[in-house]
Amino acid sequence: MANKFNAEQARVNLKQGKKSHQNIYEDILQQVESSSKKGINPVYLNFLRGNITQENIDNIISKLHKLGFEVDIRESSSISFSVKVSF
Q1: Is residue 4 part of a domain?
Q2: In the chain, N or C terminus with fewer CB closer than 10 Å?
Q3: How many whole angstroms from its chain centre is CA 28?
């Protein structure tokens, strides 16, 4: 098999992949733009909570509202949250 990716490598990636609230905001915008070009509305995303505070989440919501998006963010579990963006 050419691809030797395994669970251990996935765990390493997970530890290295912690995102800041600015990265999450940018990821949301990229996904919404991509999905809108495919006719998808609303857009659903999930993120690990990591070091994201409630203040960071409120900031993301505020920025998206200023751009005209409707946003619903919910805690999926103690370690993750889901984002629904509609337009």
Answers
A1: no
A2: N
A3: 6
